[in-house]
Amino acid sequence: NTKLISILAAFLLFIGTLISSLFIDNFQLKSGIIVISLVTGIGFYRNYLLETCRATGALMTLLKIQGFEIILMIFSLIVVYKFQFQGMIYRALGIMIIVTILLNYLAPMKKVSPRWNRDTFLILLKTGFPLYMSSYLLLIGTTTDRLILVQFDTEKLGVYSPALMIFAAFQLIPNALSQYLSPKMSFMLGETKNIKDVWEISWKSSIILFLISLPLVGIAWFIIPFAINQFFPEYSDGIVAAQIACITGAVASSATGWMGMQSIKAFKAMFIIGFFIMIIGYGFSWALSSLMDPLLGVSLGKLATYILFIISSLLTVRFIANKKYLP
Length: 327
Description:
By secondary structure, this protein is mostly helical. Helices cover 86% and strands 0% of the residues. The radius of gyration is 21 Å and the shape is globular.
């Protein structure tokens, strides 16, 4: 079954990585590679369990688990504080294991055997490849902050880590909701054949998600300086970047226009937007980092990139909805 295949994949990844690590002398690098392989392997099964929640509409179960993960991510920061790099990688592995166990216990479907179907595979390949390519371009454009920091000042990349963690925490609940909204859009479109229904869900849910995030931004904005200065003083130079990451996380949480584009299979528009964001994302962050402190530059560049992404994806869905109905 799927669980057995996931465990086997994790085991093979672990063994392969363990063998390759025998040729690495640096303990931190060796342990980091081993943990990454374990997290990747366990992630196969975790993603499968997430899809069972999505397939059965178990939204509340998913939200509870994601809420618990946010709390776990926050309180486990003490491990990073106490054990530095080793704490960071063991924290990542611990969170992955705990959340996967919780999903395994609460997920509505656990026994789904894999089955090969050539026609279904070809349909998935035809649909999935354009989605993968456009999403990959988008990912490059929204993660250039780390690349640019390495180019300008490698040491600042470590100081930037609280901002990355905060941004990731802000994405947990929206990611859980997307597991529900995305199939809902596709199902509604299949029933009504009316793209305007997708537009309605896209812009309304985008505003709602942003408004839900705003109180969290306010709370985090005032807590971050105290928490970092009190517990992680070595990261104090990254306080402003972490605060900006809260705003960026709130903006990014409203990316339902991209889900709408996926539902209506606007692959050409997705590729164009993905390519545009990739260029703009790097350009904004690089230009701002040249004019000011790189930490502030990449933070503002990422925020500006996400604003443009949200606006462009929503406008694209709106434009397509006004132009045509599905046949």
